[in-house]
């Protein structure tokens, strides 16, 4: 039930240039209400503030954000301020979130069931988006699972509630964040939200996405009877202990209480777990220098996605761990022994060559890191012998391969090289070798 | 085959309990009908709040008092399945008895040792006719009674504001005064959504404005005044 605007009424962009028709109430929050509206005939979202929230400061902040423009298309960024004759306060227009996006809350409740491939893509998109935001001198202040949505089909993210974004270091106004995501030093009242505290919240959100659990909720949480504000302040502020802290076992997850943490944690490669460990040990002790930066997460998530391999028995996605050596272990789903597919090693990168694996400029060109726009290679099956798999050259130039015996051949565009152990491929700029 | 292992995010129960005055005076001027309407109207919004909060499993029930007290909806019901049953009026205002019965149910067991703070909402239009203090003592004698977020809605001018304030037990938080059906709807909505949200998985915390000395960050209650666009247009 909406309280602020009437369906069918018109509001105007602040410059008075464009009328906007209010069509449908979408939802209310702590700061105001969101409506579906049309601007020049195109659908948009309109947020209107409660009178107490429609402050001059909020208005100024929005004007700054509108002038700066969206860091990337993944942000539902304020487009224009909106006012209405006879209605107090103001609102702002932003792109309307498409229905295909689901919230992280849906993932927590298991109402959506993305693959690990999608999950890592969503993580990658998320950290990349916040890297772009932070690099513009802005901080988000309220990273939490209510504000981020993703497409369970492909991992594309959509980040909303951007009206709390502000210039880093400008501490007046705004929000402190969402409990469970707020950095410990903010919980303790020692710091204001900033880019550095965003990094903590981002790590919490990633941990939630990959473990469906909170990184600080272990035996100390289990011992709390009434989970109220003083308890939360202790757990997330004054005594924050990572549940997998290698140096402090006082807050380990407990079976029956924290099963997701116990289930998911061992599935991931050591380097990924190490990053979380750093984020919630050094990252808590030293907020300024100890936190894992977005670019580190981005590199780790890109590598993590390349390490996904399907169980040859049941098809479940498992992660290859270079640190585990020859010990492949068992599939988490069917418990049968894992057999890894061929792998391509390019420098420090390892890419599992699954039946559907593809390479992108990210893998082959130092200058085009994180460019996943167009595939430059794809795993394919031999047209007449389905037992043979190859890597198809989707670039416009020849690759040079060196076979196990030392023979050198060229692989022209649209031709494929068989996935055989110890084949070296020179892609032009970089060289990789296939290991089985 | 599931694509991911594990299950839902671990959550804690959050007990939400309506404590409703069904004395004879609630039958005057359609007050009980207004209350039934306001609670019915709030249910889908409670469901939405619960849907968006993965940290809490919201369980709702209701106790009523008039001549004595009785569980109206005794079973703690998951909010997604909760259906309101209309209240009817008769007799006097045995509010103390209701609190005593409530205290029984807040013992451990039947309550679990680990939970989110319960939310207790007392709604009344009159003065208790029994020993209110005895009931309140019983309630506050239970750890979950003390830890609970206790809120009160006073319907009309004859409600015993002082008694409701004692139930709340916190000077910062006042009984909500509902002198009109609109105000009742607004207050019921606020306790069942904004407060529910705060007690389970608080949303973004404003730097200022919340009632921060409580054990649950209760947002500031809605301000009275025009609450619909119709009032403006």
Describe the protein in words.
The complex is a heterodimer of chains A (436) and B (233). Chain A is of the alpha+beta class. Chain A has helices at residues 56-68, 104-108, 116-135, 184-187, 195-211, 219-222, 229-238, 259-264, 270-280, 282-285, 294-306, 361-364, and strands at residues 10-13, 19-28, 32-39, 42-49, 80-83, 91-95, 102-103, 138-139, 148-150, 157-159, 166-167, 175-177, 308-310, 317-319, 343-346, 349-352, 358-359, 377-381, 389-393, 399-402, 408-411, 416-418, 424-426, 431-435. In chain A, the strands form 6 sheets. A 6-stranded antiparallel β-barrel of chain A has the order 1-2-3-4-6-5. A 6-stranded antiparallel sheet of chain A has the order 16-15-24-23-20-21, with no helix packed on it. Chain A has a 4-stranded antiparallel sheet with strand order 17-18-19-22. In chain A, helix 3 (116-135) runs antiparallel to helix 5 and helix 3 packs antiparallel against helix 11 (294-306). Chain A starts with 9 loop residues before the first strand and ends with a strand. The model of chain A has no long low-confidence stretch (mean pLDDT 94). Chain B is of the alpha/beta class and 233 residues long. In chain B, 33% of the residues lie in helices and 21% in strands. Chain B has 7 helices and 7 strands, in the order E-H-E-E-H-E-H-H-E-H-E-H-E-H. Chain B has helices spanning 31-51, 95-105, 132-140, 143-147, 161-168, 181-200, 229-232, and strands at residues 12-21, 56-66, 68-78, 119-124, 149-155, 176-178, 205-206. In chain B, strands 3-2-1-4-5-6 form a 6-stranded mixed sheet, sandwiched between helices. In chain B, helix 1 packs parallel to helix 6 (181-200). The longest helix of chain B has 21 residues, at 31-51. Chain B is globular and about 60 Å long. The N and C termini of chain B lie far apart (55 Å). The chains are: A alpha+beta (436), B alpha/beta (233). Strand 12 (175-177) of chain A pairs antiparallel with strand 7 (205-206) of chain B, so a sheet runs across the interface.
């Amino acid at each position: 039930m909406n309280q602020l605007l009437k369906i069918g009424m018109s509001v105007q962009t602040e410059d008075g240039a464009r009328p906007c028709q209010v069509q449908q109430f979408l939802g209310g929050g702590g700061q105001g209400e969101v409506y579906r509206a049309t601007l020049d005939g195109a659908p948009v979202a309109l947020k209107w503030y409660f009178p107490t929230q429609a402050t001059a400061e909020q208005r100024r902040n929005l004007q700054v954000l509108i002038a700066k423009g969206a860091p990337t298309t993944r942000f539902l960024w304020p487009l224009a301020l909106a006012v209405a004759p006879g209605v107090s306060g103001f609102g702002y227009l932003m792109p309307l979130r498409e229905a295909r996006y689901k919230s992280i809350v849906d993932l927590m409740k298991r109402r959506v069931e993305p693959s690990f491939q999608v999950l890592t893509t969503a993580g990658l998109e998320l950290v990349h988006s916040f890297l772009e935001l932070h690099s513009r001198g802005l901080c988000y202040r309220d990273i939490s699972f209510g504000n981020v949505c993703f497409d369970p089909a492909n991992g594309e993210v959509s980040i909303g509630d951007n009206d709390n974004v502000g210039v880093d270091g400008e501490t007046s106004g705004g929000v402190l964040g969402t409990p469970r995501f707020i950095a410990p030093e903010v919980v303790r009242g020692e710091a204001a939200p900033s880019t550095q505290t965003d990094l903590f919240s981002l790590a919490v959100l990633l941990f939630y996405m990959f473990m469906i659990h909170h990184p600080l909720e272990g035996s100390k949480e289990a011992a709390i009877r009434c989970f109220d504000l003083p308890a939360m302040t202790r757990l997330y502020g004054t005594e924050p202990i990572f549940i997998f802290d290698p140096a402090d076992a006082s807050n380990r997850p407990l079976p029956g209480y924290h099963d997701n943490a116990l289930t998911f944690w061992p599935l991931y490669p050591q380097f990924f777990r190490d990053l979380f460990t750093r984020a919630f040990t050094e990252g808590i002790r030293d907020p300024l220098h100890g936190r894992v930066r977005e670019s580190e997460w981005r590199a780790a998530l890109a590598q993590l996605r390349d390490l996904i391999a399907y169980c040859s028995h049941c098809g479940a996605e498992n992660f290859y761990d270079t640190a585990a050596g020859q010990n492949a272990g068992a599939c988490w789903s069917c418990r049968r022994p894992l057999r890894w597919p061929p792998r391509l090693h390019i420098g420090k990168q390892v890419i599992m060559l699954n039946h559907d694996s593809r390479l992108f400029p990210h893998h082959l060109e130092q200058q085009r890191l994180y460019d996943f726009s167009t595939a430059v290679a794809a795993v394919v099956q031999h047209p007449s012998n389905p037992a043979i798999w190859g890597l198809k050259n989707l670039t416009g130039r020849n690759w040079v391969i060196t076979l196990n015996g030392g023979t050198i051949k060229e692989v022209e565009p649209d031709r494929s090289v068989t996935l055989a152990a110890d084949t070296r491929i020179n892609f032009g700029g970089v060289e990789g070798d296939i290991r089985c | 085959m599931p694509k991911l292992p594990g299950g839902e995010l671990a959550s804690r129960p959050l007990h939400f309990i309506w404590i409703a005055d069904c004395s004879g005076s609630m039958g005057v001027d359609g007050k009980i009908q207004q209350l039934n309407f306001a609670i019915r109207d709030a249910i889908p919004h409670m469901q939405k709040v619960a849907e968006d909060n993965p940290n809490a499993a919201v369980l709702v029930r209701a106790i009523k008092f008039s001549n004595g007290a009785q569980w109206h909806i005794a079973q703690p019901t998951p909010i997604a399945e909760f259906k309101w049953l209309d209240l009817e009026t008769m007799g006097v205002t045995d509010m103390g008895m209701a609190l005593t019965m409530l205290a029984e149910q807040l013992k451990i067991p039947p309550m679990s040792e680990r939970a989110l703070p319960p939310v207790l909402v007392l709604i009344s239009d009159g003065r208790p006719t029994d020993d209110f203090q005895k009931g309140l003592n019983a309630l506050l004698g239970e750890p979950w009674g003390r830890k609970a977020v206790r809120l009160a809605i006073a319907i009309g001018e004859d409600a015993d504001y002082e008694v409701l304030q004692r139930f709340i037990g916190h000077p910062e938080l006042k009984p909500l005064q509902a002198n009109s059906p609109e105000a009742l709807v607004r207050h019921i909505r606020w306790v069942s959504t904004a407060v529910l949200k705060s007690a389970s998985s608080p949303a973004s915390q404003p730097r200022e404005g919340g009632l921060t000395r409580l054990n649950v960050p209760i947002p500031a209650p809605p301000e009275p005044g025009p609450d619909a666009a119709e009032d403006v247009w």
